[in-house]
UniProtKB/TrEMBL annotation:
<dbReference type="GO" id="GO:0016705">
    <property type="term" value="F:oxidoreductase activity, acting on paired donors, with incorporation or reduction of molecular oxygen"/>
</dbReference>
<dbReference type="InterPro" id="IPR017972">
    <property type="entry name" value="Cyt_P450_CS"/>
</dbReference>
<dbReference type="InterPro" id="IPR036396">
    <property type="entry name" value="Cyt_P450_sf"/>
</dbReference>
<comment type="similarity">
    <text>Belongs to the cytochrome P450 family.</text>
</comment>
<dbReference type="Pfam" id="PF00067">
    <property type="entry name" value="p450"/>
</dbReference>
<keyword id="KW-0560">Oxidoreductase</keyword>
<keyword id="KW-0479">Metal-binding</keyword>
<keyword id="KW-0503">Monooxygenase</keyword>
<protein>
    <submittedName>
        <fullName>Cytochrome P450</fullName>
    </submittedName>
</protein>
<keyword id="KW-0408">Iron</keyword>
<keyword id="KW-0349">Heme</keyword>
<dbReference type="GO" id="GO:0005506">
    <property type="term" value="F:iron ion binding"/>
</dbReference>
<dbReference type="InterPro" id="IPR002397">
    <property type="entry name" value="Cyt_P450_B"/>
</dbReference>
<dbReference type="GO" id="GO:0004497">
    <property type="term" value="F:monooxygenase activity"/>
</dbReference>
<dbReference type="InterPro" id="IPR001128">
    <property type="entry name" value="Cyt_P450"/>
</dbReference>
<dbReference type="GO" id="GO:0020037">
    <property type="term" value="F:heme binding"/>
</dbReference>
Amino acid sequence: MTTTDATCPVRELPRDRCPFDPDPAYVRLRVEEPVTRVNTPAGLDVWLVSRYEDARTVLLDGESFSNIDSSSSHLIGQVEQLQQPPPPGILLRLDGEAHSSLRLRLAREFSPKAMARLEPYVQALVEEHLQRLIAAGTPFDLYRDFALTIPSLVIGELLGVPVQDRDVFASTTSRMVDISLTAQEREAASQEMNGFLVQLVQAKFADPADDLLSRLITDPRKHPVTFEELVGLSLLLLTAGHDTTANMIALGTLRLLQEPALAERVRDDCEVLQTGIDELVRYLTIVHYGVLRLAVRDVQVGDVMVPAGDYVAVSLESANRDEALTLDPDRLDLERTSAHVGFGYGVHQCLGQHLARLELRLALPALLRQLPGLRTVEALPDIPFKNDMIVYGVKKLNVTWDGAR
Ligand code: HEM
């Protein structure tokens, strides 16, 4: 699995993010060693790609790179899992035809048109949760009490989780990623969720309704989606779409609050978020360590010939701050219309990106409008950040506002 060439220096994966900017080591790497050998915290030697153009080249090349034996969690997670076959339905761990046929069936469920139909639901959800917090009238943890709840309930709506089960669904998804719990408690929540999803998919097979799972079941195509694929897919949508969006809501709010002029702009000018959401996704790049691919044939990346069998880690946070991508990339400029790889790129580019944009576009201004004087309880140096996790964000974000007790 490790293929370190003795002539190549192996260093550590840069991880000193502070708190909105990537590790400064990337500035030098992009110039001097844009494709270089590093050792990941999980003990894997990989080729680290730090330039935007090289990142796009790798992510676009589904012939030379495979996802089956790699996922971003392996960058800091357990490498022993690498050679285990992925469970069915996990799009991120599929290649070629198996990936494209499943992705094609899902595409229209996440299209801009489908998201426009969902907008009134998300709007009402954001409103209802903010009203609850305002009525309680006390400082709250914006990450736990608001940001985590909205995306999980939206996924519940998409999957067709019965209304009476939504609160349990939301609290179980939150426990799955709650780092104040022990690893065993989080694992127990994942097991509970798995059992919940098995029952949900069984119910959809027995009695299809008007939701994503039912439409996949009744889709008249030649190769129906199997029971196991639907359970895996539901779990993937939850894991890929829940904590990512939650972290973007909380970290995005925190970043806006650092520059009151930007926060006011988002509060007062709906138009600015047409470009502003993608700029926040670029600037914050919460999938900060990036994504992993396995070279399945010898392939040129920049100046390096990567041999078949080697892993390549594409640093999304570095690519998005590449001076060759956009002028002054370290500045958050909500009117910038730059491309970026914050949602990935190529065939595995984020399936839920229009949904994430919708949730952020509704949640961020609503927080700033309805909680006048919104501010953090702790000063920035005292806010805990998730440097040690695949998805970057705040561990908690206590906030208060002018009307709070
Ligand atoms: C701001 C929030 C989000 C960010 C930053 C984000 C980021 C990403 C990134 C970087 C990838 C590519 C991974 C790779 O190439 O290995 C990805 C893939 C994916 N995302 Fe998202 N995501 C977000 C929200 C969502 C939401 C809301 C959903 C759905 C509910 C979702 C579902 C997926 C799925 C299913 C994939 C795999 C696609 C495939 O393999 O074809 N994501 N996301």
